[in-house]
TrEMBL record:
Pfam families: ABM (PF03992)
Species this protein is from: Streptomyces orinoci
Gene3D superfamilies assigned: 3.30.70.100
Taxon lineage: Bacteria, Bacillati, Actinomycetota, Actinomycetes, Kitasatosporales
Domain ABM residue range list: 2-90
Keywords from the named record: Monooxygenase, Oxidoreductase
The enzyme's E.C. designation: 1.-.-.-
InterPro entries tied to this protein: ABM_dom (IPR007138), AI-2_Isomerase_LsrG (IPR050744), Dimeric_a/b-barrel (IPR011008)
Secretion signal span: none
UniProt name for this protein: Quinol monooxygenase
Annotated GO MF terms: monooxygenase activity
Length: 108
């Protein structure tokens, strides 16, 4: 699988609306046949920073994603809302999706 983590720092005046603005992009990406997950979170330390964790079944699925109309549309409007160039980690992994954490499980 292709695993991608992207850290976005948003201009303060747009931070509160960011998750609403990416809603259509998120929904469309989650509906792609090769998408495994596409999940947003907000930093507890910086209210203007969001992290996107995403994964695709293969490099081909990732390429289809970046060539999709919804990706191109998002890339067209996002520059107005971001404060800095997003930071990215992009790696290919043998596993498919999430694994259970070996060091921790619920009691009882």
């Amino acid at each position: 699988m292709i695993f991608i983590a992207v850290r976005f720092t948003i201009r303060p005046e747009y931070s509160e609306e960011w998750l609403n603005r990416v809603q259509d992009f998120t929904r469309a990406t989650r509906n792609e046949p090769g998408n495994l997950f596409f999940d947003w979170s907000r930093s507890v330390d910086n209210p203007h920073q969001f992290v996107l964790l995403e994964a695709f079944e293969s490099a081909e699925a990732g390429a289809e994603h970046v060539n999709s109309e919804h990706f191109k549309t998002a890339m067209a409007w996002m520059p107005e809302l971001i404060a800095t160039t997003p930071e990215i980690i992009n790696v290919e992994l043998e596993q498919r999706g999430w694994s259970a954490m070996a060091e921790l499980s619920p009691r009882g």
